[in-house]
Each structure stands twice: as C-alpha cells, then as structure tokens.
Design a protein that fits this description.
alpha+beta; Tumor Necrosis Factor Receptor, subunit A, domain 2; 4 domains; two-stranded antiparallel sheet; 41% helix; signal; membrane
Length: 475
C-alpha cells in the first residue's frame, strides 16, 4: 500500500506524537495545534484544561471550572474533552449558568418547589405538588390513581397529593362515585345515658375544683418573670465585669454570649464596629485590613471574623468585656449592652444582686383570672386564703404607702446627691433624673430603638448610669 504524502500525525496511546507535519490542518478533541520546526503537530490538553471539538491552529485548550468556592463541590471533575461541572450544597443554588457562586435558597410556600437558580416553581402547573414550606424541597410528582385502577377522590391543588379511592373493576364511572355515609340510628336509651354521664362529669369537675381550691391549693408562683428595669440592668452590667475579673471561665462565657448577640443585632453599624474594635491596635489602619479581609462574606460571618481577630489580639480578659461595652457605646448601640445584660441575667452562675431577686419574688403573685373571679363569687371559701396585691394595696392606709415610697427612694436620692465632683445644682439635677428613672422604671425591651433613631430625653437620661459604669471601669 502506498503511503499518502499528506499523512497526518499518528495517534499513539490516545496522544498525537510530536512529529511535525507541514500539511496538518486539524487536531482531534482533547488536543490543540502547536507549531514546530518543520510545521505543526497536535499536543494533548493539560489536566486543568479541555478541548471539546476538533480544532484548527489557534484554537487553544480551555481552562476547566474550579469548584472550590464556599458551599460548592465537584459534580464531575471533567476530562481533556469535557469541562468540569460544579454543584452547590443542599439549601444553596447558582445565581446563573456561570456557576461562579452559591447563594442560599429562598423559602418556597406550600404548592411551590425549589427550581433552578433559586426560583420557586408552581408545582400544580407541572402536575406536581409540595406539602411543606421550606428551602429544600422540590416539587414531587402526583399519584396517578387511574393507573392503579383507583378513582381520584380528591384532586390536588398543589399543596397535597391526590387522594385515591379503593381498587375498582371499572373506573369509567369515577365521576359518579359517592361515598356512602353510615346511617345513625338514634335511640332514646342512648340519649338518656349520654345525658346522665354528662351531668355526672360536670358535677365531678365542680367538686374537684372546690376540693383543690379550698383544701389542697398550693401557693402558686407566676411562671412569667417581669422584665428587669434599667436600674437592675445597670447593676447586672457592673456585676458581669466584676465576675469576669474573678472567674476566667465565666469571662469567656460572657464574651461568647456578647459576641453572638452583637452578630445578630449590630445592623448598619457593621462598618463602624471594626473601626472601634481596632482603634487602639498597634498597627495603623488595622481595621481597614480586617474589613478588606471579610468584605466578601455574609454580614454575620463578617462580624464573626472581626471578633475572632479582635479576641486573638485582646485575649479573653475582664478588660476585654469593658472595651467591648465601650465600643458599643461609641457606636451608639447602648441598647445592645442592655440585651447582653438581660441575657447574662438568665445565666444560673451569675451572682445577681439581692435587690433584684427580692423585687422579682415580691411580684410573683398575679391577679385572679376571669374564671377564678367567677369561682370565688360562687364559692366564697375560695377567696379566704389569698389576698392579691391589688387588695392589699387598697387596704393599706395612705400614710403607710407614702412612708414606704419615701423609704425606698430616699436612700437612692441621698446617694445621687452626694456624688463627688458635682456642684450642688448639678447634683440636684442628677438626683431628680434618678428619681424620675426609679419612678418610671424604664425597661429596655429586646428590640429597643438605637440612639441614632430617637431624640427622646427620658431615654437618653436613662442611659447616664450605664455610661458612668463603663467610664469608671479601668480599660
């Protein structure tokens, strides 16, 4: 056999050899054409590239996708003739066909399922259904009752599966299918028995209630605790700092709790937070480096990163807690300090001031409910063993109530008026503010407005004591 003068390069073990060929026009998939001394030859693509088609000179091998981003993994690593395929973790999806980043799924209502690129699809339009509201489930196929010789008793609306009836020999007349209800035979004897049992049950319940309330009623304590006042939260903040100085384990627990609450509530102060955290850092512009490092993360993840860097520098010490509270004060988020104090107040190991515990014990009793008042009016014996706070206050003399109020607030006013370093007029003003704070019992709710969003004087006055705590504590 005569050899062709335009013989292409010979394929050896899946690769084209390096023999030059002046007349070489194309290379197969998985290769690219390169120049050599006497012409051109085909070279196989590298492990990180691919070429899906036969190609001419100038068509380079293409780079494969890299599936190492967050929440992403390889579905197929690819080959020299095929690109790699990426897929997102469960609960995440690609924003588009580029497969560059995985983002969290939206929450789809019942009747809608997860579709490509995070779109909630109408399941019923696809003859499918979805019976849950979540971020994971896709539409599921509906049962085909007729296929298994059953009639469809209840057709799906997209939020539940079709309901099939029993197996039938002929399903042609499914439209006329009716469910027969059993006939109820009423009997006079049955009615009498039911009536007697109902009367006995009613009498038994009344007797049990009388016995319980008159002879065996325990002294109930309210299962709900009142919200602590601003004065008590200030005491808790001061106690947190003192306990952190004494117990290293408690200090670390308080820092973990504080960082978690700040991550969930810092909001738009996410940019001023790192600036205040790293303001005293020995490296100039440290906060800019930290912000640049975590700018691509989600807000909570970025704040978590700020705190990791900050705690590795400051260490878990009592001074670190003081600096954190001062940082929140500078960011005008003193409300978060009160959230932290409220949360730490619930920790069993916290040494809560005795004054706070006594006040909570004094408020355990509640007013009787409507049903309780009705029972007391029907059965007088139910009201002899308990007197509620409203009744006790009504029975006290006005002079006694005024004396108690003067005793409770006098000591606090004396302490406020004797603060060193204040002129008499300023001390009197501070005492008046303290009196107003104690009388109104300002409570900072979990979602109190930030200092940026309110200009009300009572709220600003209620923060003076916590400012004093933070400023007098050594940093």
């Amino acid at each position: 056999m005569l050899r062709n003068q335009q013989d292409p390069a010979i394929m050896v073990a899946g690769n084209y050899n390096l023999k030059c060929n002046k007349n070489l026009e194309t290379c197969p998939a998985g290769h690219e054409m390169r120049e050599c001394v006497e012409g051109r030859h085909c070279v196989q693509c590298e492990d990180t590239s691919y070429q899906p088609n036969s190609n001419k000179y100038g068509d380079k091998c293409r780079l494969r996708k890299v599936c190492t981003q967050r929440f992403m993994k390889y579905q197929h690593h690819g080959s020299t003739v095929r690109d790699a395929d990426c897929m997102c973790f469960e609960g995440y999806h690609f924003e588009n066909e580029d497969q560059r980043a995985c983002v969290p799924n939206r929450e789809c209502d019942k009747g809608y399922g997860q579709g490509p690129y995070g779109v909630c699809e109408n399941c019923l339009a696809k003859n499918m259904y979805s019976d849950v509201k979540d971020r994971l489930q896709a539409c599921k196929p509906l049962k085909n009752c007729e296929k298994v010789s059953r009639c469809t008793l209840k057709k799906s609306n997209g939020t539940f599966d079709n309901v099939c009836g029993p197996v039938m020999d002929d399903i042609v007349n499914c439209d006329n299918l009716t469910t027969e209800k059993p006939k109820v035979e009423e009997s006079s004897n049955t009615a009498i028995i039911v009536g007697c049992v109902s009367v006995l049950l009613f009498v038994g319940v009344i007797v049990a209630l009388c016995y319980y309330f008159c002879f065996h009623r325990p002294r109930s304590r309210s299962h709900k605790k009142r919200a602590p006042t601003q004065e008590e939260l200030d005491a808790v903040v001061s106690q947190v700092i003192e306990n952190a100085k004494k117990d290293e384990k408690y200090c670390k627990q308080a820092l973990n709790t504080s960082c978690t609450i700040i991550e969930n509530n810092i909001g738009r102060q996410i940019w001023s937070l790192p600036q205040e955290l790293f303001r005293k850092h020995f490296q100039a512009g440290k906060y800019e480096v930290i912000v640049e490092k975590y700018k691509g993360d989600q807000p909570k993840a970025a704040v978590n990163g700020y705190f990791r860097e900050w705690r590795s520098w400051k260490e878990d010490k009592a001074e670190t807690i003081t600096d954190l509270f001062m940082c929140l004060k500078t960011c005008n988020r003193i409300d978060i300090v009160y959230m932290i104090a409220t949360k730490l107040n619930e920790i069993d190991s916290l040494d809560v001031p005795e004054k706070l515990s006594d006040k909570e014990d004094s408020l355990q009793k509640q007013k009787p409910s409507y049903m309780g008042s009705l029972l007391y009016s029907v059965f007088p014996c139910l009201g002899k063993k308990r007197r509620y706070p409203s009744e006790e206050k009504a029975s006290e003399k006005p002079e006694t109530m005024n004396r108690l109020l003067d005793t409770e607030s006098g000591a606090e006013l004396q302490h406020q008026t004797q603060q060193p370093g204040l002129p008499p007029l300023a001390a009197a003003t501070e005492a008046a503010d303290a009196q107003q704070t104690l009388s109104t019992a300002v409570i900072i709710p979990p979602h109190a407005p930030t200092l940026e969003s309110t200009n009300e004087e009572p709220y600003s006055a209620s923060l003076q004591s916590i400012y004093a705590i933070l400023e007098l504590t050594p940093s």
